[in-house]
């Protein structure tokens, strides 16, 4: 009788044959831990708090649209002014800066990165932008333009309410900047996954003594 052959799916016991290579490990293959989820939530909440600062800065730095009333209607003080576009541009530039700073801080504190952190940057950036928008419009000049015009009287210049004409695009500035900057920092300065050890070639067969 002959000995049964080793099934192809089982490893050989031959000491001259190298062992199976270990499975590759790295951040991409690691499971998401509870600690990483907590870190993502913290990033989201911190970004929301920072959104209040963005709103205050936007409220104080954005150019204002000036209105005037003649007692019958309300008109732009300068019909060729670009203050309305300037308000949008100020918000977007501030949001881009906040997103870049948020990504830099997160990367410096957690170089390994992870999906929860990236989601925290994206969700926190969107939430922070919404809070900034609310602060700027709520604490700025009143939205009741007619009542404001009656209060100040005719031929008196007053400020229009602070608005975002392209609100949907402005809301994306912070999260997009945060994700792009974090991705770039991780790609350039982040830790590298260890290279898997190469699976060696089997040793050449040598004829033992006493064999022909």
Number of helices: 5
Trace the largest sheet across and list its strands.
2-1-3
- Measured on Cα atoms, how large is the radius of gyration? 31 Å
Give the low-confidence spans: 23-28
Major sheet description = 3 strands, antiparallel
Mean pLDDT: 80
What is the distance, rounded to the nearest whole angstrom, between the alpha carbons of the first and last residues? 23 Å
- Beta-strand residue fraction: under 5%
Structural class estimated from helices and strands: mainly alpha
The percent of residues in helical segments reads: 40-55%
Global shape: elongated
Order of helices and strands: HEEHHHEH
Number of strands: 3
Transmembrane segments: 41-61, 91-109, 116-135, 166-189
Protein name: ABC transporter permease
Biased composition (Pro residues): 1-26
Keywords: Membrane, Transmembrane, Transmembrane helix
Can you describe what's shown?
With 212 residues, the chain is mainly α. It has helices spanning 34-61, 83-109, 115-139, 145-152, 167-189, and strands at 66-69, 74-76, 158-159. A three-stranded antiparallel beta sheet has the order 2-1-3, covered by helices on one side. Strand 1 and strand 2 form a beta hairpin. The protein is elongated. The two termini are 23 Å apart. Residues 23-28 have low confidence and may be disordered.
